Amino acid sequence: MKKNGLWYSNSYRINVPLILKKMKLTILMICLGIITSFGSVYSQNSNLTFKLTNQSLKNVLSEIENQTNFSFLYQAKSINHEQRVSIDMTNADITDILDQLSEQAHFQYKILDNSVIVLTGGGESGSVQQPTKVTGKITDDTGFPLPGVTVVVKGTTVGTVTDGNGEYILTDVPADAILIFSFVGMRAQELPVAGKSNIDVVLEEESIGLDEVVAIGYGTVSKKNLTTAISKVETDDIQKSASSNMSQLMVGRAAGLQATVTSAQPGGAVDISIRGGGDPIYVVDGIVMPSSSLESGSGGSTTVVPSSVNRGGLAGLNPEDIESVEVLKDASAAIYGIGAANGVILITTKKGKKSPMNIDYSGSYSFVKNYPYTKSLNATDYMGLVNTFSKEQYLYNHDMGAYGNNAYDNGWTPAFSDSEIANAKSYDWVDEVLRNGAVNNHNLVIRGGSERVTYYVSGNYYNQEGTVMNSSMERFSMRSNLSLQLTDFLKLSTIANVNRNKYGNSSVGGASSGRGSQAAGALTAALSYPSYLPIKDEDGNYTQFSYIPNAVSMQDIDDATNSDGTYLNFIADIALVKDMLNAKLVYGNNKEMTDRYVYIPSTVYFDQMYQSRGNIAYDGRENQTFEATLAFNKEFGEFMNMDVVVGVGKYLNSSKGLSFAYDTQNDVIGNDDVSAVTGNMNPDSYKNEDEKRSQFLRANFDILDRYVIATTLRRDGTDKFFPDKKYAYFPSVSVAWKMTNENFMKNIHWLDLLKLRASYGTTGDDNLGSSLYGTYSPSLVIKFDEGNEVYSSYVQDGVDYPNVTWEKTVMKNIGLDFYLFKNRISGSFDVFRNDVTDMLGDANTAGLSMFGTYPINGGHIRRQGWDASLTTENIKTTDFLWKSVLTLSRYNSLWKERFPNYDYNDYQIRDDEPVNARYYYKTAGMINADLSNIPSSQPEDYAKAGFPIIVDNNNDGEITVDDVVMSNEVPKIYFGFGNTFTYKNWDLDVFVYSQLGVNKYNYAWEWADAASLANQTNNENKFAFDLWSSETNQGGRLPGYAYEASSVSLPGGAGIDVMYQNASFLRFRNITLGYNLSGKQLGSVVGKWVKNIRLYVDAQNPITITNFEGYDPEVRSGGSQKTFSAEYPQARTFTIGAKINFN
């Protein structure tokens, strides 16, 4: 035996102090490894021959030491020295011999240079080699670099992410480690290091993207097995823009989803519609969330501040936290029951994953500039047009000139002299109300995890200064998604989101409580003031014009809203039978509280008074969800895969509010102390609760990988209906045929998937807003003199309606999915029809009833149309990629049966006409000054100079309601078109969307009123030059003074087409240019801390192509008079930002 000795005593045979005997064996390994590394190394590949039969382990180890340069290290108690073993090997290397020996003696070993360390317990036998540094580059099959690929050492949390060039660096990697390379949409690979320092990897697309998972009701399914019409929104694209609201980012992004901006104010609302329905259901991480924002009132008739608040829901959800968005458009929505007839939007937030800790920061600054807004007439133009139409007024009132048989008597006196007009100074009132805005947005994310625990924690700060004075939004939000694998069968998860939103409410258009211009918003007031008037008079007081408030003085009105949201979601996943039978328990609680403070100081003239007024309002709502589900998943060989979910749910919704409106307060105190109020105080409050209960079933069957059947059944109950109508059943069924898996199509190699789908389902709605049971409330307090007794009387607010039942929707859909040329081209096409019957609504009561309306079922609406999507990879080379996404949709909503007991005009009772119809008479220019072009069919009251010529549409010689025509307010086509270009480290995204084939009422033309100019009641805009005038503009396209001054109407009360205009548009929604820098490119100092930096610039709404002459063809305006037509202006946003991924 060699001098190294066989060490098998109870302690290590090495002369060290006693303290070292208590240290772990690993210390000795390190020391001996350093010492022996200076000696010669015996080759592990040397050929050895051993033939030992039934020998003790001690003797076999000694023999190996005698024939080689290897020494064995072990503790005596770790092995049985007397165990009998046998070895019979010829020309074998040392590892083969040790492997055979370890199997017999039940030990494991590590080779460190010339030492063999005998181990007990875990760990794999083999050579112990020094850790190494591994670098490499990850590309796809065309050589295109893949940034964001996760590289992890198998069995550990050690890993990294590739940079913008697809490159990665891993240090201290064991030479025998295995690396796992994974990327969304690519097939993961596991490669051994095997001592290599450079490993380049080519990742292949995973099943051409068809195995990508899509969220459905209470589960997921691969794209290839999808049986229904579901659109997926690419969140990587929508998160590049500066927006506080997820809905604003979805505009044009999904086929069948119509999204129209209804207000551009900070946090402004977007009208989301799926295939022409009403508000869809939003499901966030499995919990149904309110689709609208919680807003407190401004004080009603006491404070009369135009609310001007039109904000979207989900205001507490940071778009950066969204992982995926799926839109359920057909029977796939039926499993969500009540309200799902309008479709469902599934939102899944980001979760933690098994990986090393990742820290990401993103920040941006945006400059916001309004589109050119409707400009008022300057002082010179205003004065000139006042003179023009005041003379028209004089002629009209005295039957002179074009308006009668009398000759002009020179009795008219101009309102403004030539010198006044020539020397007039203009003041831009609108410019005093509008401004440039700004947005600051900062996000910080920490995420990662291990085998047992995963975490995702994020924080967001968003601050927007609106483009209208006093408008703003500030949001603080935090989200935490945590998951704990408590045991092999129990996983606990919690999702928490808290937010604090602060809003500055600007008064824009509109008026409150029907007060008209005397209580108009700031923009309406600014458009109304003549431009020759200064903002303040010589004494420094706000200028006053008529009874309209001074727009600039309204900036002294305090109007602020604070909103606090708390969202908690607790989930328990229980694996009853691993990979086959799982139970899930879910509790979700969404709680929101808002408070709004409004104060009008006594220095502001508003609603025709100088009086201090205020309002304090508190509102809250809570939505609770309790659900339990049981999921069964089983593969029956190659014949069938089965996925079944059954569940029950209970849903509680409550809301309450309290407000105090008051007048006559000290301006110094304001809302700080309402006890100092000396005038009237009007308190108000409310409280509502409702409950729903459900049972549901979903079953999916994939048969022979060719035929897929999916069924759902939901039983919903609501407390709004009477007991015999409380519950309803809503079934659905959908099927898919994967034709490319049939034998007759398997040889078509360029066709990856061709799938035909069909679905049928029913849903219901209880959208009444309140119960159908009769209610009473306290009213007058009555005091009797005798006995000084006080009694309160009660009045009946509502009566019982036991016959009202569920609104029903039947949804039908046929679709086709296709994938071609290895996923280079993919898309879908769907045709649908939804029939809504037994509609819930209010009908007019008899004249003597104490109630104005009552709820009923009735009417039938049919929504039908088609939608399509197409994705293409146009060019794909090593350095360059060009990808396009196109979405198209068209729908129409028709009356099949009108809603009963409603007062319709004669031209509104025709079936098969659009629900969104506008009715009017066609015109053919204006009647000229000599009345020579009046047709015989023209109504007598309309036969005046400057009146529009009414077209006899049916050529019967007279104008009746039969001549009324209809225009559909729904565009004929919605489309979105996105293009992504990537060249090396550069990327460019261009996204446009459009609405084509739609006429809209142009409210800007209402600011061209000849009578208003003549009477000097308002300023007007540039379209006043298009007004017909007998002396200055007989070719005017808008009606003249006589039309505006008269009170005549056409049969049926329908309007005229003069005010309608083609509102088709194409808008560049986003243009984004980015550049990616890897840590390697940033240098050794920065690269030590930073993996990757993305720098980008983005332009939102930079270009709009349209012939519409209103200020914006998209933002919806409401009402039919000026006080409702000055909406918050659409804006262009220019952003510069950075996203940093830290090591």
TrEMBL record:
Organism taxonomic ancestry: Bacteria, Pseudomonadati, Bacteroidota, Bacteroidia, Marinilabiliales
Top-level taxon of origin: Bacteria
Subcellular location: Cell outer membrane
GO molecular function: siderophore uptake transmembrane transporter activity
Alphabetical keyword list: Cell outer membrane, Membrane, Signal, Transmembrane, Transmembrane beta strand, Transport
Principal location class: membrane
UniProt topology in membrane: Multi-pass membrane protein
GO cellular component: cell outer membrane
Coiled-coil ranges from the UniProt annotation: none
Domain TonB-dependent receptor plug span(s) in chain numbering: 223-344
Similarity comment text for this entry: Belongs to the TonB-dependent receptor family.
Domain called Protein FecR C-terminal: residue spans: 50-118
Keyword Transmembrane: yes
Any Pfam family hit: Plug
Name by which UniProt lists this protein: TonB-linked SusC/RagA family outer membrane protein
Organism: Mangrovibacterium diazotrophicum
GO biological process, one term: siderophore transmembrane transport
Matches recorded under InterPro entries: Beta-barrel_TonB_sf, CarboxyPept-like_regulatory, EF_Hand_1_Ca_BS, FecR_C, Plug_dom, Plug_dom_sf, TonB-dep_OMP_SusC/RagA, TonB-dep_OMP_SusC/RagA_CS
